[in-house]
Amino acid sequence: MSDQSVNILLVEDNPHHAELAMRALKIHNLAENFVWVKTGEDATDFIFCRGEFASRKIDHAPKVVLLDLKLPKKSGLEVLREIRADERTKNIPVVMLTTSREQKDIVEGHNLGLNGYVVKPDDFEKFAEAIRSVGYYWLVLNQQPKKQ
Amino acid sequence: MQPQPTDLQSLYDRLRESEEKYRRFVENAADIIYRTDGEGRFIYVNPVSLKMFGYTEEEFTGKHYLELFHPDFRNKARQFYATQFFNGQFTSYLEFPAISKEGKQFWLGQNVQPLMEAGQIIGFQAVARDITVRVNAEEALRRSDDEVRKLNAELEHRVAERTAQLENANKELEAFSYSVSHDLRAPLLTINGFTQFLGMHLGDKLDDEGKRLLGIIRTNTQTMQNLISALLMLSKTNKKELEMSQIDMQELAKETYGEIVSPEAQGNIDVSISAMPEATGDRLLLRQVWSNLLSNAIKFTLAKDERIIIIGGRIEEHRNVYFVKDSGAGFDMKDAGKLFGVFSRLHSDEEFEGTGIGLSIVRRVIHRHQGEVWAEGEIGKGATFYFALPQG
Q1: Which of B306, B307, B305, B304 is nearest to B351 (CA)?
Q2: CATH number of the CATH domain containing A111
Q3: Is A35 inside a domain boundary?
Q4: Is A1 contained in some domain?
Q5: Contact A122/B225, CB-based, under 8 Å?
Q6: Number of folded domains that form chain A
Q7: What global pTM score does this model have?
Q8: By residue range, what is the domain housing residue A121?
Q9: How far is B211 from chain A (nearest CA, A)?
Q10: A–B: how many Cβ contacts below 8 A?
Q11: CA B137 to CA B128: how far, in whole Å?
């Protein structure tokens, strides 16, 4: 693996939730090449190699993006929309991570081509389990379509 | 045979008497009586006419009849009489605003007849009466009708305004519950996550007192989670559109019981779910009702040695009644009114855990179905919770 390869991009404004997610991944040995950004802007900068991530290469896409729905300014749904709108990034798996159970967010996310939707459970063990299954599926089981 | 002069004299006298009689009659009449020539100019008016219009006899005679009409009404009157004569109607009746010499307006109702001679109209005669009082009364009535209409319109406007406010309040409530679900849960997830992580992965570094304190934090976090979940459920039962369908209530009760009671616990409870009438209602919400009532029954029964729960229903006039009867802790009937209130609890947390929201959800759901809830109980002997749904 090159030093640019990224397994998981976590977009989460709450540092404690980010730490919990990271700890959950670590428990299951899934935390390798893990990147955490706090805002929607940083997320799109990272994915489209802009701003402080300008030196990145766009074809080193993360294997999965764990995206919080409620982010300050640019929302999770907006980030998702931008990823899906670009030919180079539209196939990146995106899983929404949120405490919201609002039906309309789920529907809108799926309309935008969301790959999964994980409601953060109130219980850490369940949360760790949800994170584990998402990480395991997208990092271990899922084979990305080969690039042309 | 020619009449004799004496006869002529008496005929003349009688004629004069008769004319005198009619003249007096006309001149003393309370109504306006007048006569015009063929063009509509007055040739005779009785004293009441002079008095009402304020003209002298000289001024009155020779005036055109339209001069007595309010200027705004003259065209209409001209058309009305033209039509009458064109159609050859013998009499007509018209109500119109008249104007006196001093410009005072009053209303007259007037009967007009053409005077014919040899097939020609040689003039008109009319009787008119002051109808101002009646017209004003009608006008007042019309105005009050208008007023009523205006008030109605205002009322409708106000109702629309209030409805909009209510919708607004509902939206705010929705935003609030969204905020509860997201913003209150987020920090709770953190507290819970870290304490759990601490217990699981760093627990060996804590002494017994540390572990006990951690346990208290965990228990209270759990309680708060349950409260938030129950509050959300309560707000959902208000928001959710009712999706009505025919429901096999016995099946639904069995299903719900199986879900909330673990197989091990099922062995400890003597439960009977008997036949009951079908219901018309929202399946998801009625499942919630069963779930809350059954959890309650189980919670208060498990503490006792004798654990009996009887679930059933019956058909009554216009409604179906369902019940959950338990042999649990029961309650004092004087507290029956407090059972279904939000956050109202009859037991301390040490006796029985609970959020105080479960039964208020039950009541909300049943009220939304136009039904009723009530309960009977006795301390130490158990309780029976009833709900009735209208027959659909």
Answers
A1: B304
A2: 3.40.50.2300
A3: yes
A4: no
A5: yes
A6: 1
A7: 0.50
A8: 8-141
A9: 17
A10: 51
A11: 19
Q: Is residue A134 part of a domain?
A: yes
- Determine phi and psi for A138, rounding to 5 degrees: -80, -25
User: Mean pLDDT of successive 10-residue segments in chain B (392 residues)?
Assistant: 71 87 83 91 92 92 91 91 81 92 93 86 90 92 92 93 86 72 76 86 87 88 80 75 92 91 81 93 92 90 86 93 92 81 66 73 90 91 93 80
CA A24/CA A1 separation, integer angstroms: 23
Q: Does domain B241-390 have CATH number 3.30.565.10?
A: yes
In order, the DSSP letters of A47-113 are HTT-GGGTTS-TTS--SEEEEES--SSS-HHHHHHHHHHSTTTTTS-EEEEES---HHHHHHHHHTT
ipTM over 0.90: no
Chain B residues within 8 A of A118 when measuring between CB atoms:
none
Q: Look at A99 and B225 and tell me if their CB atoms are within 8 Å.
A: no
Q: Please identify among residues 68-97 of chain A the ones whose CB lies closer than 8 Å to any CB of chain B.
A: 70
* Short-list A66, A56, A78, CA closest to A14: A66
Rounded to a whole number, what is the distance in Å from the CA of A28 to chain B's nearest CA? 13
Structure tokens at B32: 């306006």
Place of tokens 């766009």: A58
First to last CA, chain B: 102
B329, B304 Cβ separation under 8 angstroms:
yes
Q: Quick check: B223 contacting A, CB < 8 Å?
A: no
Give the CATH architecture of domain B31-130.
Answer: 2-Layer Sandwich (3.30)
- pLDDT tens track for B202-219: 888 889 999 899 889 988
Of A23, A101, A102, the CB nearest to B197: A23
Q: Is residue A146 part of a domain?
A: no
